[in-house]
Q: What sequence folds into this?
């Protein structure tokens, strides 16, 4: 053992466990994607390669409506929650440690800790009261709910970026005649931008695949893509679901790749 | 404590009776304790002291990053105590350089000028001039992360010098560089200061750096200014025991004042004009001012060689006097052979005339 130092990769069973974990993680997804190209009606018998189910999904007006609604909701919620999270991150890191700082962190990250079903029920009751009082039936409830539970997902990468940033940079900028606003505009914001992009993307993806809260608080005719799919599966499972899922997967991978390329260039 | 009062004409920046305290109540820490200092126009002034002595705090007060608890900061006689850093014609070179990672070398250098709202043509011309001054013309388009430590250091200097500040503050800017580069940058800094004529205030804990570069040095300890003077003053006439031991190496010998000199614990009397008439005193003498002569020679102090340490150009000879007190003599190493001394050998010790002096505590 003198020549070789400890390495976790030489522990017994390391390779077997690693392979098993990857199989469990990726095999179901691979099967899902493969069957989205199935020509037949079944989702378990392979009947030849075709784009049939993609065409069916594309021509389905319900799918189109749900997709547009999902994208609208995810973009709006991501923008609102990232703006709020940026301010929260600046407020909690750009000052000396203060009393109750940990409490504030917990408060901001509440949606990560409270079970989603509890939040969903609470919002259902709360929004029902508002509905009754105002008669408002629009998308506002979904936007507010999504923006709220997306905040911690946007907050965490932004805060991480701010904490990794040398505070002396801001001091240096003010030493070089920059006003407070100019310090933010020319130094803090550009350096923070990769964190803000990461926050936006995480918030977008989180909103895009939410089911629990959405199901509880949506009004009739406010199906998002995930709730629409859930509804379909209850009736009959067809390759259409595989096709929509595969398209969502492709969108997420594309976003991740784009983000990776953007931030790599910046640093 | 001596506070040099400058000629009325040339004070660049001044701290007047400045006190800076951090914390509240029982945990209050006094970082600066009634410090008054006046730095002259065009001077290379060094604040020297061990870490925690308050030198960086004083620098931050000059820059405007901190406000004094009491006292005032004056720029050319004008009170700027309340002025925020972005309104002071004073720039800083930070210990960590603090270069903007998202901007190129040229954009970093241009930053201060752009923030001042100077016209684009003037900014471009000044950036060119600064790049030439620090010899980085070929790297104008690079990002800081693509530069070596020494190059980053030059960019930080150029960025702080570009707006032509009244005073340039340098916070231990050389501490991150290796020894060889540090020596080069010492010469470079001195050249930049001479060429630009800007007042430099340089903070360091490295006494050699302070001695070789400065016009004047302010020695600080425990939040107080101990002594201000030229490097030669500070080295040859330290006002107290702290200054004597912090700048260079020195020997301390307990003694008693007698008329015309001091009597060591061994009974030997060292002639010292101007010494107090009586009382216990501390005598200090630099190792290079100690001479070894044959044992028993008239006027010499009897000593025994304890150890010899070879340093290349010098050999340090550790001596014990008759009463057991220790003394180090620094001897130039001979070109060939050894110093002709051996451990346990009896020798005589004399001090170069005028070199030994009394210091306070």
A:
């Amino acid at each position: 053992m003198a020549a070789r130092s400890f390495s976790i990769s030489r522990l017994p069973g390391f390779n077997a466990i690693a392979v098993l974990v990857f199989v469990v993680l990726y095999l179901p997804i691979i099967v899902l994607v493969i069957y989205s190209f199935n020509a037949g009606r079944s989702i378990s018998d392979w009947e030849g390669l075709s784009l049939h189910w993609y065409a069916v999904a594309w021509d389905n007006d319900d799918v189109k409506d749900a997709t547009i609604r999902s994208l609208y909701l995810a973009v709006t919620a991501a923008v609102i929650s990232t703006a709020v999270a940026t301010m929260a991150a600046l407020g909690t890191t750009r000052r000396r440690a203060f009393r109750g700082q940990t409490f504030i962190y917990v408060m901001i990250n509440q949606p990560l800790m409270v079970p989603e079903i509890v939040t969903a029920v609470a919002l259902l009751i709360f929004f029902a009261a508002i509905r009754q009082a105002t008669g408002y039936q629009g998308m506002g409830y979904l936007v507010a709910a999504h923006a709220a539970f997306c905040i911690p997902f946007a907050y965490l990468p932004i805060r991480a970026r701010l904490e990794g940033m040398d505070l002396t940079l801001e001091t240096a900028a003010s030493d070089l005649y920059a006003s407070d606003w100019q310090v933010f505009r020319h130094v803090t914001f550009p350096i923070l931008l990769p964190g803000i992009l990461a926050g936006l993307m995480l918030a977008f993806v989180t909103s895009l695949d939410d089911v629990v809260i959405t199901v509880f608080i949506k009004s009739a005719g406010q199906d998002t893509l995930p709730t629409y799919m859930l509804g379909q599966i209850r009736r009959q499972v067809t390759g259409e679901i595989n096709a929509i899922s595969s398209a969502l997967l492709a969108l997420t991978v594309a976003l991740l790749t784009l983000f990776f390329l953007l931030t790599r260039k910046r640093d | 404590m001596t506070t040099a009062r400058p000629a009325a004409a040339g004070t660049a920046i001044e701290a007047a009776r400045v006190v800076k305290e951090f914390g509240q109540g029982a945990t209050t820490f006094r970082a600066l304790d009634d410090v008054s200092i006046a730095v002259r126009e065009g001077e290379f002034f060094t604040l020297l002291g061990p870490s925690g002595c308050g030198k960086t705090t004083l620098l931050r007060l000059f820059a405007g990053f901190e406000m004094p608890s009491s006292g005032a900061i004056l720029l050319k006689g004008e009170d700027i105590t309340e002025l925020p850093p972005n309104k002071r014609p004073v720039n800083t070179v930070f210990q960590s350089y603090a270069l903007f990672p998202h901007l190129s070398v040229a954009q970093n250098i241009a930053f201060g000028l752009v923030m001042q709202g100077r016209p684009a043509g003037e900014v471009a011309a000044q950036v060119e001039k600064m790049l030439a001054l620090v010899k980085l013309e070929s790297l104008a388009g690079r990002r800081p992360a693509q530069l070596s430590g020494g190059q980053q250091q030059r960019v930080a200097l150029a960025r702080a010098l570009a707006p032509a500040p009244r005073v340039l503050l340098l916070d231990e800017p050389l501490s991150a560089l290796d020894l060889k580069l540090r020596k080069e940058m010492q010469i470079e800094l001195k050249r930049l200061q001479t060429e630009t004529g800007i007042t430099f205030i340089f903070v360091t804990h490295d006494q050699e750096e302070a001695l070789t570069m400065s016009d004047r040095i302010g020695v600080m300890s425990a939040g107080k200014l101990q002594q201000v003077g030229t490097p030669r003053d500070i080295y040859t006439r330290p006002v107290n025991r702290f200054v004597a031991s912090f700048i260079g190496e020195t020997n301390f010998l307990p003694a008693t004042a007698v008329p015309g000199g001091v009597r060591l614990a061994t009974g030997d009397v060292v002639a010292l004009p101007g010494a107090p008439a009586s009382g216990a005193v501390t005598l200090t003498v630099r190792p290079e001012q100690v001479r070894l002569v044959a044992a028993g020679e008239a006027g010499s102090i009897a000593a025994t060689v304890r150890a010899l340490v070879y340093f290349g150009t010098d050999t340090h000879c550790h001596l014990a006097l008759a009463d057991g007190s220790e003394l180090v003599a620094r001897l130039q190493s001979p070109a060939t052979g050894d110093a002709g001394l051996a451990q346990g050998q009896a020798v005589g010790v004399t001090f170069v005339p005028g070199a030994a002096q009394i210091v306070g505590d």
